[in-house]
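Illustration 12: DUF7869 domain-containing protein.
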Amino acid sequence: MSNVSEEEYRNHVDRKEKARAEKASDKIRAQTSNDIKVVTLDLQAVLLCPLLKASALYYKTKLGCHNFTVHEMDSTHVTCYFWTESEGELTANSFASCLSDFIDKLEGVKELVIYSDGCTYQNRNLTVSNTLLRQAFEKKITIIQKYLEKGHTQMECDSIHSTIERKLRNKPIYCPQNYIDLIKDARPHQPYDVKYISHEFFGKYSELKYYSSIRPGNRVGDPVVTNIRVLKYTEDGSLQYKLDFSDQYQDLARRSKVGLPSVDDTIERLYLSQVPIKKAKYQHLQELKAVIPRDFHPFYDSLPHN
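Figure caption equivalent — predicted structure in token form:
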């Protein structure tokens, strides 16, 4: 039996319908205007390496691989940011680095609209917000983040990930490069742009301090971060929000003495070297070399570990 009241359920359905209508409207805008870009983005479920049918793999820990996907709704172009756990962790800095790289390469765009789920460590957090504010200031564009309703976050990225999973079916994966090759080949008529990134790619975007919080309220009972439906980043360095798609934008208050974006802002590297994996995992991977062709052994031997 559900504990959700009838009113809560109606509000949930209303938010779902508004989000879908908003996304459909933005898609039309992107397809009819050259200076508007609308994207959806999501992280694929962890891909394990090696991936074989050998029984030796069942009780061994494997290397985690990550695919952060960006889909452009006007051109259907897809960018996949791919890395292994030995090159970077799953933190807000990782996703901020991918978004910053994607936006850096945009040309002729005046407005970027980003759709995603509301996952806080990935899409709805201070690090990503300060990063997008910096990009809006530097590129002189407007960036708008829009969050789909929880439980109804179906996006084009889901179809992309399904296409990749079908391509991977029954294919042996001996090393991460095998994933790269198969992902590139998953959509032959318009291949995915796969960026195989290393630890040197990631920046320490959490050091940006334009805003100290993205929570709309500061008292008990006030709206919290997860109530936000829309965040708007302007080229003058300000941040606005909506709690409902039909609301008017409100300014997000700066709660402490923090600075505006500047052309002098620099981003330090997040990692100075590869990220060590646990000793037990390294040992398991060494044992799995028994079912992996010899040509791939050097990759596993070179993995950093504690």
